[in-house]
Amino acid sequence: MPNSTNSIPTNPRMAAVHTFGHPSAAPPRTGWVQRGRGAAASPGVPRQTPLLPAAPNGLSLSHGSGSDLLATWSAPSADATHGAATSYNLRFGPSGAGIWTGVVGVTSPYTLSGLTAGAAYDVQIQSGNSTGPGPWSATTTLSATASGPFAPNAPTIASLAASADGTNSKLRVAWTAPAVDGTHGAATAYNLRFSPTGTGTWTTVTGVTSPYPIAGLSGAAGIDVQVQGTNAAASPGAWSATSTGTTWGATVAPGGWVPATSQTHGASVAPNGGAQLVAVAAPTTVTGAAFAWSASNATVPTSGLISATGDGQANGWGQWFNAPATAGTYYLWLLAQGTGGVTTGALVTGPITVT
User: Fold this and answer.
1) CA torsion sign, 12 to 16 to 17 to 18?
2) CATH number assigned to the domain comprising residue 218
3) Are 62 and 80 in contact (CB under 8 A)?
């Protein structure tokens, strides 16, 4: 007997087609995670995919033991566009080279070891989670150091000039201490070397202090000078840049009139009304002489010179003049002069009090 219009088909294949489509078709995939089991389960909730994390915060580098670098950072914040970080990767390489060595699964702080002492390194850090890695952080750079003690940097020569003691055989050199940094220690002692200009024939003096008088030189000679710092390191520091000075070409000595150490301002120089000097060519010819008051006993005056004239003695020069118009402490310079009034020798007195 045929089935009635209200009956359920008994052919199972027809039932399958009615429910899913073609009998041989696979059941459709729903993409849902079921809360429970059985035909009566609720439709379920969508599977949630975490957002990628942001770059880590505050990447910084510091020196560890030896040439190690210590990298530290903090976790990035999770927000509406970034998920939480659950892991970190790090990469590093020679500064500016763009050549990276990667390390996965690191934690803060992380030690980078086996680095070349004195070389600068770029470091970046990256967050990750189950979705994948986030962006790399900005680059942080620091130079690796080796275990000390470290040799000093090169000192800087601050001044090099002929001595104002009347001789023609000395140069006075002064220098400043070198800077201390991650790969250079403080200088605790100094060496000095000098050579006739351009010859590279060095004479070395060890254990000197600034300022230092180089003696035993020839008159009117150009001299190259370098200074080197030392400390407990196995090797000394680098030599400084070369400075060149020239010794005086004449010698200067007091004459018969020597000013007293106490003077009255604006009055004739006591006790003789002036001063005298003796200037000898050694080897530069002396064509004139001068006196000058100055508040400095280190810088040769170039203005306010009081011209001297021959006083009738062999190589003698003298002049009458007054003490400074203003009270204070002064020094009197005795100067030998060559062609064109150029100073070729100098002698400065001790302090003279003007009241």
Assistant:
1) positive
2) 2.60.40.10
3) no
The helix/strand/coil state of 194 is strand
Mean pLDDT of the chain, nearest integer:
88
Q: Which domain does 128 fall in, by range? A: 57-143
Tell me whether residue 130 is exposed, middle or buried, using C-beta atoms within 10 angstroms of its C-beta: 0 to 12, 13 to 18, 19 or more: exposed
Burial class (CB in 10 A: 0-12, 13-18, 19+), 25: exposed
The verdict on 129 and 175 lying in the same domain is: no
Closest CA to 141 of 94, 103, 195, 89: 94
Residues 242 and 224 sit within 8 Å (Cβ to Cβ): yes
3-class secondary-structure state, position 19: helix
> 289-313: per-residue pLDDT in tens?
999 999 999 999 999 999 999 999 9
Structure confidence by residue, pLDDT tens digits, 250-288:
999 999 999 999 999 999 999 999 999 999 999 999 999
Considering its fold, how many domains does the chain have in total?
4
Return the half-sphere exposure (C-beta side, CA atoms, 13 A cut-off) of residue 318: 18
Residue 107 lies in a domain: yes
